[in-house]
Amino acid sequence: MIILGIETSCDETSASVLKDGIILSNVVNTQLIHSEYGGVVPSLASKNHEKLINHIVNKAISDSKIKLSDIDAIAVTQGPGLIGSLMVGLNYAKGLSVGLGKPIIGISHLEGHLFSGLIDNNIKFPYTCLLVSGGHTQIWQVKSFNNYKILSTTVDDAAGEAFDKGARILGLKYPGGPEIEKTAINGDKNKYKFTIPRVKSNPFNFSFSGMKTALLYLTDEFSKNDLKVELSNIAASYQESIINTLLYKLSDVLDFYKTDNVLIAGGVSANKRFRIKSNKLEKDKNIKIHFPDFKYCTDNAAMIAMVGYKKMLINDISNLDILPFSSIEHA
Ligand code: KG4
Ligand code: ZN
Question: Is the pTM of this model over 0.70?
Answer without folding.
Answer: yes
